[in-house]
Amino acid sequence: MAADGTTLAVQDVCSGYGGLQILRGVTLDLPPRSITAIIGANGAGKSTLLKTIFGIVPTTSGRLLFEGNDITTQSAQRRLRLGLGLVPQGRSNFPLMTVEENLEMGAYVRTDRAIRADIERIYEAYPMLDRKRGEPAGNLSGGEQQVLEIAMALMLSPRLALIDEPSLGLSPAMQKVVFDAISQLRDVGTAVLMVEQNAVQALGIADRGVVLELGRISAVGTGPEMLQNPEIRRAYLGLSDV
Asked: How far is CA 56 from CA 5, 6, 75, 87, in A?
């Protein structure tokens, strides 16, 4: 952690694909043990922000500081080893492998002897995975697979988890399970940066909400402030004024 208590500092970052600039000077600080929800319209640059922080999309200008260290030019694998975890949009497990084998794959860059103990801790935290440890991941429901993917990221004990559209395609009941799992990440000390179309649910568990609009941050506030803001309610939450 940086001396000022910041897990990640995004400083005037621009990035994009080829000659197309998507992020246009994003500045954002993420404190530890917190959930920050990024909301905005499709095409605003939300997923690009996560990919830029993780190193999949290169930064064209600006800086990224993780726990005070400049990671702007570090590879994605190096960022993974430093303590950044990514749960991408859509299914990203190994469907023909068992739940337990998927958890083992989540620890593929580790060489220590505590992997078995960490898997058992995952089972304690997420009993639904314990009950299905021997089943192929592809047999799990969509929500269970999303929880498995969060658990796979946890196998590297990330201090920052980047989560892209975790509730996509899930029933309301499974959405609650997934958002509860994300809340648990904060409870164990992880900072979470989450992109989520279900803005009402996301802001309901978030410490802070950020609106991204055409590659720029247009509003920042606590989760409750965002939920009560009339303009945000109309534009992004599909709710009427309070």
From this structure: 26, 22, 8, 13
38 touches 185 (CB < 8 A)? no
Residue 137, token pair as written in the block: 């991941």
DSSP labels, 79-121: HHHHTEEEE-SS--S-TTSBHHHHHHHHTTT--SS-HHHHHHH
How far, CA to CA in Å, does 83 sit from each of 34, 67, 123, 213, 235? Answer: 15, 10, 21, 28, 35
Quick one: CA dihedral 154, 158, 163, 167, positive or negative?
A: positive
Phi-psi region of 25 (alpha: psi -120 to 50; beta: other; left: phi over 0): left
Question: Taking the C-alpha atoms of 17, 38, 78 and 63 in order, what is their torsion angle to the nearest 10 degrees?
Answer: 70
Structure tokens at 198: 């279900």
Q: How far apart are CA 55 and CA 166, in angstroms?
A: 20
How far is it, in rounded angstroms, from Cα 230 to Cα 120? 45
Amino acid (1-letter code) at residue 108:
Y
Whether the model clears a pTM of 0.85, i.e. scores above it, the answer is: yes
Instruction: Tell me the pLDDT tens digit for each residue of 34-73.
Output: 999 999 988 999 999 999 999 999 999 999 999 999 999 9
Contact present, 140 and 91 (Cβ < 8 Å): no
Q: What is the pLDDT of residues 74-127, one digit of tens each?
A: 999 999 989 999 998 877 899 999 999 999 999 988 888 899 999 999 999 899
